[in-house]
């Protein structure tokens, strides 16, 4: 795939983004504010998922492995 097709595809994706978000009707300063807020929120979601999802997956794995896995025998008996 040559550079022109990649460039056209990126422009097409950006145009689709403008159509889906209806930001093509905004003024340039409104559009830049909208894009800044959108990118910031997306970055926070990605960061939160990167930090907290592995912890919750590990805790869920430990929880379900205790329920369905081997039960440790009681040392009180």
From TrEMBL:
Residue spans crossing the bilayer: 9-26, 32-53
Coiled-coil region list: none
Superkingdom, taxonomy of origin: Eukaryota
Keyword Metal-binding appears in the UniProt entry: no
GO molecular function: serine C-palmitoyltransferase activity
Record key words, sorted: Endoplasmic reticulum, Lipid metabolism, Membrane, Sphingolipid metabolism, Transmembrane, Transmembrane helix
Gene Ontology biological process terms in this record: ceramide biosynthetic process; endoplasmic reticulum organization
UniProt pathway annotation: Lipid metabolism; sphingolipid metabolism; Sphingolipid metabolism
InterPro entries for this protein: Ser_palmitoyltrfase_ssu-like
CC annotations in GO: endoplasmic reticulum membrane; serine palmitoyltransferase complex
Topology of the protein relative to the lipid bilayer: Multi-pass membrane protein
Subcellular location: Endoplasmic reticulum membrane
Main location: endoplasmic reticulum
Subunit structure comment from the entry: Component of the serine palmitoyltransferase (SPT) complex, which is composed of SPTLC1, SPTLC2 or SPTLC3 and SPTSSA or SPTSSB. The heterodimer consisting of SPTLC1 and SPTLC2/SPTLC3 forms the catalytic core of the enzyme, while SPTSSA or SPTSSB subunits determine substrate specificity. SPT also interacts with ORMDL proteins, especially ORMDL3, which negatively regulate SPT activity in the presence of ceramides.
Family: Belongs to the SPTSS family. SPTSSB subfamily.
Record-given protein name: Serine palmitoyltransferase small subunit B
Source species: Falco tinnunculus
